[in-house]
Amino acid sequence: MATSTISGTDPFADPTRMSENSEYAEGDTLPVGRDASLTLATDSLIVLDEDFTRRETRNCCGLLPSKAKTTQAIPFFNVLWAELSNFDIIIQYAKTTSKNVVRVASVNYLVEKPQQGYAKVWITKLLDRAYGESQRKKRIKVLINPFSGRGGAQKWFLRDIEPIFVAARCEINVERTLYQGHAVELAEKIDTVAYDVIASCSGDGLPHEVFNGLGKKRNAAKALSQVAVVQLPCGTGNAMSWNSFGTDSCSIAALCIVKGLRTPLDLISITQGNSRTLSFLSQSVGVVAEVDLGTEHIRWMGSARFTYGFLVRVIRKTVYPCDLAVKIDIPTKGAIKEAYWNEFSNHAPIEERRGSFDIETPGLPELQYGTINSPLPSDFTPIPSNKLGNFYAGNMALMAPSANFFPAALPSDGQLDCVTVDGDISRTSAIQSFLAVEDGSWFNMPHVNYQKVSGYRITPKGQKTGYISIDGERFPFEEFQAEVHRGLGTVLTRSGHMYEAQGVVPRTGQGS
Ligand SMILES: Nc1ncnc2c1ncn2[C@@H]1O[C@H](COP(=O)(O)OP(=O)(O)OP(=O)(O)O)[C@@H](O)[C@H]1O
Asked: InterPro entries this protein is in (predicted)?
């Protein structure tokens, strides 16, 4: 969580003294109550209160009340709202009550009549610092999957999420999904002018449906650019929340949505048979798909089922032969690393982070590479994949907590991070790469082929049945083609342009 810092100074130092030393510009401190002040510091609001009741000192004549200063630093990020009501200034904020929980709390002081005009100006300044570029009073359509997270989503919404949205003066409209695919229908019908955000209290399945519902609208590209799709982490994986907000805490994610910055997100058209589906997270064929979708029968193991499923297949040296052809955009790890760190310091405006498709054109953008039924595009390069163990393409970095599969992934670079690993590598190498996923260092392993691509076609061979996973959902085991649309979708993130994952490391030096 954001913590209070006043760069170069002690956050708990007496701010009134600091103002004497001109640390704060004139007008940053508002005197309130009998003997208190509110000061806008560098990153936090400092509440300084002289409390007569809390401490007593002893002198020669006995116990005497004395002033005890209490100082509280509230990070601006956590400030939800502030207003003047009659003679009171009320500041509501998200108070950190444990490592993974914030709860609405408030600071309330009397403001004398002569100070009221000044207090209004001060509140404007506070809200400017609290929200920065982020939109205030967001209008949020909340979808709750009552079956997510072992049935906890409804409870978590009421306890952890709603109070934060209400305190931040967000307008909310809540609807529960009633059956599989309901979120597709709801998103397809939603009035995109009436909402800024669609927030799913769910796993990653509902955001996938919401993107696809918006994608079915007559004005799909416009709708996808208007409404931000976010997740309130109520599922088991919650990859979207980890990448956007760096958390799987519902209350912290709610705060991050209140303060989130609109961020264009690449979406991927998957064509298979005669269908076209949007993917926002990942596609896999081979060991990851099988471990993800083919271990349901050992769900009782909890998350250990993934480790177990992986090890069984590695020991057997399972291969998943395919025909694979990719449209390579960045071929080497060195160039990928450079592109990643260039983006780190790039603060280009949102309009420059989307492809050149015309958002007034009806439906989804035209496919540059055709569909799976078109001839293979001439600029797709065949990759030998007779011994493929794993094909994994990612649009976000973290696929689960501690699973930084795609450390170089960026929200709107117009590219997928495409990884292939042969199935016949040594068991030691396979296990080492499995262990190196946690911190993303598997990127640097020589047997991990990592490229940035804007499209690909994959055709499974030599297997009648198997697993294809798109955003964690099982798709028919048959060939498909993928094409990236730069910045077609919109999400909210903390940074406005990066994921909350450790990027590709080391920062300097070239990979292979
Ligand atoms: N009321 C409902 N009854 C049955 N299925 C539902 C209902 N509401 C939503 N669903 C379906 O539940 C599926 C899972 O949704 P969710 O977003 O929670 O993703 P998940 O990643 O599978 O969840 P988890 O992480 O808990 O496994 C989606 O396919 C969705 O259509």
From this structure: ATP-NAD_kinase_N, Diacylglycerol_kinase_cat_dom, DUF7493, Lipid_Phosphate_FormReg, NAD/diacylglycerol_kinase_sf
